[in-house]
Amino acid sequence: MFRWKLHGNGRTVAPGAVVGPGERLNWGATIAIGLQHVIAMFGATFLVPVLTDFPVSTTLLFSGVGTLLFLLVTRNRLPSYLGS
User: Tens digit of pLDDT for each residue in 15-39?
Assistant: First the structure.
């Protein structure tokens, strides 16, 4: 499951370079990017339904369904996906 190799030195990404699906940054940067995804998901999946009076549970359910379908279709080859 955790077969990623470190991208370059794991701390920086050169201009124009891309961290590939089988690569990762150091754990600090990886966790920071994960937190960024959680914050982005929070706005789309929780805050918008609350502001528009839409059931949050419905949004969370279909966000999860969308994420599972995406992982099945891509066979888990892409590093991240925001279900929202």
Answer: 998 888 788 889 898 899 889 888 8
Task: Provide the pLDDT confidence category of residue 55 given band limits of 50, 70 and 90.
Answer: very high
Structure letter (DSSP) for residue 46:
I
- List the structure tokens of 46: 């929780």
Both tokens of 36, joined, read 């960024």
Rg of the Cα atoms in the chain? 16
Write a three-state SS string for the chain: CCCCEECCCCCCCCCCCCCCCCEECCHHHHHHHHHHHHHHHHHHHHHHHHHHCCCHHHHHHHHHHHHHHHHHHHCCCCCCCCCC
* CA-wise closest residue to 46 among 54, 68, 66: 54
What per-residue confidence (pLDDT) applies to 83? 60
The single residue listed with the structure tokens 């706005």 is: 43
